[in-house]
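A protein record in our archive is deliberately plain, so that people and models can read it alike. The tokens are whole numbers drawn from a learned vocabulary of local backbone shapes. For reference, a complete record is included directly beneath this paragraph.
>
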Amino acid sequence: MALLHRATLSPSKLDMMRSWLPNQSWIENLDTSGVEILGAYRFDDPAGAVGIETHLLLVGTRVVHAPVTYRDAPLEGAERHLVTTMEHSVLGRRWVYDAVADPVYIEALARTILTGGVEATLEYDQPVSAEKRKVTTRVTGSGHPDAHVPTLEPGTISVLGTTTTIEAGSMHLDVLRVIDPNPTETTHPFLSGTWPGRIAPAVLAVAHLT
């Protein structure tokens, strides 16, 4: 479960993305002058300390996959992966990181892929309308509930084209940053998703066990 607050954010999530995306090498030659949010999904942090949210963004004619984490204090060693600091009217200052550098996201992504998990259920701190509660973005791992999830070790992060690869001990995870509208099939465990305007599931991340 992910608890959401009715709050004012500064900067807004859209402004945050519009500022951050142009500086990422994996965005390549996409025109970032008109970024729009299509949807978002969350994962659970079992400890309840870190917010894990992934934005699906329309950049030009392509869909960009941008996971971030929200923390109440700086993440040691992740300075170059800081997206922004954000003022949250309920929670106070939040440090927002590119999630590929956050061990809480890495563990959540691997677990979801390998065990056939789905996005976190959203709960709100105040009553909201049925329209607000409607889930429009869904993700599913291709694995099975009884699958073994190995212990992940902090590793290196590399970028090749529009893919970010996270080395994590006995596993590496490919996070697809620009979504292929016609992806090729993979024999590896993967995360797929749908969002407004996307009916057929698209591959978002792939796990490789070594």
Summary: The helical segments are 13-20, 103-115, 130-133. Residues 2-209 form one domain. The radius of gyration is 16 Å.
